[in-house]
Each structure stands twice: as structure tokens, then as C-alpha cells.
Write a sequence for this structure.
């Protein structure tokens, strides 16, 4: 089942968030039994939360409309006013969420440089933990991300990071918006990548094809505090089963196929290299291209939707197939061959 853009002949490589619900997913949404989730009696939301918790090795899960809200509720669950979290400069929870932890949670970030592979140097993390002294914010949380910039980080790193956090009594949060991509890229089970974290945020609307929805996973206490934070951040949705049904469909049908997106990213990267472009990746479903001036405009003008910028990120997903990739490559080659 292809999305509306593909039907219109457009190839949308801007993000894996651009997918449209398939006919089968839409049917599941239409047919979902509903209730009021603020009362906790939407059966489809409850089924999604139980299914995701079981699938990823947690006792509790909570549905949010977005990954941004889920990450922020996690920060607020782990940290109080005047406390801080250690986080990568490139992490979504630091760089791309409008400073929500500081603005709404009164939580101070302690950003550290990400290494080229996306990890944080654990010696730097340890050195950044503040002593118990009234001059300093209390360091409470280590927040990591997988995948980060499309790069999948292996379990071995998390074993070391979680050991450090435990020894220094920090809580741990994983922004696992694309943890299923990480698992597919590494050839492991997503549950193995989530193990040991106090909370994990997993998006249903990135690569998995749902129109909205993010799950926060944790134990009863973490999720209890996150539920309160969710209320502060705007509250729960009522008959959210329409969203949850899409999420259930996504988890049941669209996880195993992520390897196809990675293969398409590989095809895209190789084709661009063959055409003489400077390419980084693929990292799971993402390819980065050094974009010459006028390249983005050329692509968009020929029906290949991309975002601008000198380091162009191209993302594969379930609404782009190998034929779409070949179309994108033909347009890219035409740019190369254009007389200038
Ligand atoms: C790694 C990561 N975390 C969190 C988010 C936030 O998700 P949302 O757009 O649903 O708020 C994104 C969005 O692209 C993301 O890439």
C-alpha cells in the first residue's frame, strides 16, 4: 500500500514522518473500540500500552501525541526543579525540543559533545556530574538517544553507560524514537537495546507509518509521574483509541519491514556515490549528501521532495520503494549532467 505522495508520483525523502496511514491501518482506526482515556477506559489505548510494554520489556507504558511531549514528560518524571540532565549536544531532547526541559520543567541541561558515532564519552559524562554543593544543580539523569542521526548504537556502549549511571545514582532515559531502526540495523531485538533504562520513548509515527503517537515506557513510579507531567503539558487525549489502533497496526505490521528501508537507503547512497556526490552513510534509513548549490531546488522542481542545507539528509520509509529511489537517482544524475 503506497501513500498519496507516491501515488502522485512524488518521492518524499524529507523524513520518515511523512508517511500516510495505509488503507488497512485506516480500517483498523475506524473499527477500534473506543473509550475515554482520561478515565483509563479506552480499550485500544490500554491494549497498545500493554502490548508495547510487553514487547519492549517494561511493566508500564503511556501514550503521548508526540515524541517531544513524551521526552519532556520523561525529563519531568526523573528531574525536579533546579535539577539537571546530562545529554548530547546533538540529542533531540536537548537541541530540537525548544528547550522544553528548562522552559516548562525548570530542569537545566548539561550538554556534552557527541562523538562522530553519536555516543558520549563516558569519562566526560562522569566528570560532568556535579558534586553535592549548593553552588550546583543536582545532576539526576543521563539522557541518551538511539538511533542518533540515523546511527545505531550497540548494546555494549549502553552496558557501560548504564553501569556508570547506576554507580553514580543517575536515572537513565533513552530517546528511542527510532529504536526499531537501531535494532534492525544491528540485527538485534529492540528489547535488548531498551534493557536497563528507567524510561524509553518510542515513536510510532517515524518509519512505522502511524499518523501520530509516541509511547513512553518505564515502571509504575516513572510512568505515574510522567502521567502527571502529561497533564501539565496539555493533558491526555480522550478517544485516543483511533490513534492507538494505528500504533498497534504499526507495531504488528511495520516493524519487520524496516530492513527494506535500510536496503533502499543503501541503494540511494550507492547510486549517489556512483553519480559523483559526496555521501555519508547510509546510517540505518538515513543518507547524508554534501549538496551543491541549487541541488535541493533541482530535486524539488522534479518531484523529489528534500530539505535544503549543505548537509542534506535523505530519509527512506515505507512510502518510498526501490522504484522511487531509482527515480530520485535519475533526477540527481540529471543535476550532475546539467550544463552550467
Ligand atoms: C530522535 C527524535 N526524538 C524525538 C523526536 C520528536 O518527535 P515528534 O516530532 O513526534 O515530537 C524526533 C522527531 O523527529 C526525533 O527525531
Amino acid at each position: 500500500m503506497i501513500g498519496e505522495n507516491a501515488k502522485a508520483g512524488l518521492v518524499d525523502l524529507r523524513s520518515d514522518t511523512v508517511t500516510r496511514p495505509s488503507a488497512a491501518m485506516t480500517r483498523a482506526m475506524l473499527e477500534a473500540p473506543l473509550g475515554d482515556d482520561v478515565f483509563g477506559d479506552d480499550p485500544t489505548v490500554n491494549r497498545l500500552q500493554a502490548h508495547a510494554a510487553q514487547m519492549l520489556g517494561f511493566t508500564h507504558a503511556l501514550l503521548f501525541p508526540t515524541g517531544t511531549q513524551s521526552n519532556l514528560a520523561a525529563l519531568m518524571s526523573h528531574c525536579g526543579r533546579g535539577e539537571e540532565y546530562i545529554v548530547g549536544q546533538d540529542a533531540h531532547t536537548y537541541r530540537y525540543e525548544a528547550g522544553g526541559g528548562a522552559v516548562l520543567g525548570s530542569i537545566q541541561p548539561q550538554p556534552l559533545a557527541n562523538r562522530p558515532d553519536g555516543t558520549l564519552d563516558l569519562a566526560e559524562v562522569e566528570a560532568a556530574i556535579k558534586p553535592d554543593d549548593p553552588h550546583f544543580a543536582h545532576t539526576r539523569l543521563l539522557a541518551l538517544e538511539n538511533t542518533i542521526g540515523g546511527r545505531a548504537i550497540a548494546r555494549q556502549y549502553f552496558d557501560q553507560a548504564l553501569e556508570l549511571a547506576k554507580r553514580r545514582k543517575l536515572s537513565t532515559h533513552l530517546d528511542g524514537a527510532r529504536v526499531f531502526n537501531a535494532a534492525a540495523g544491528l540485527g538485534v531485538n529492540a528489547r535488548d537495546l531498551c534493557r536497563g533504562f528507567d524510561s524509553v520513548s518510542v515513536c510510532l509515527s517515524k518509519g512505522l507509518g502511524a499518523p501520530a503517537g509516541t509511547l513512553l515506557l518505564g515502571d509504575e513510579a516513572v510512568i505515574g509521574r510522567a502521567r502527571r507531567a502529561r497533564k501539565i503539558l496539555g493533558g491526555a487525549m480522550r478517544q485516543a483509541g483511533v490513534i492507538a489502533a494505528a500504533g498497534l497496526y504499526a507495531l504488528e505490521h511495520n516493524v519487520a519491514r524496516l530492513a527494506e528501508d535500510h536496503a533502499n537507503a543503501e541503494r540511494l547512497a550507492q547510486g549517489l556515490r556512483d553519480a559523483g556526490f559526496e555521501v555519508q552513510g547510509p546510517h540505518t534509513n538515513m543518507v547524508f549528501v554534501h549538496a551543491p548549490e541549487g541541488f535541493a531546488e533541482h530535486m524539488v522542481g522534479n518531484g523529489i521532495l528534500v530539505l535544503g542545507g549543505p548537509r542534506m539528509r535523505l530519509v527512506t520509509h515505507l512510502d518510498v520503494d526501490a522504484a522511487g529511489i531509482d527515480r530520485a537517482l535519475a533526477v540527481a544524475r540529471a543535476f550532475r549532467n546539467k550544463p552550467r
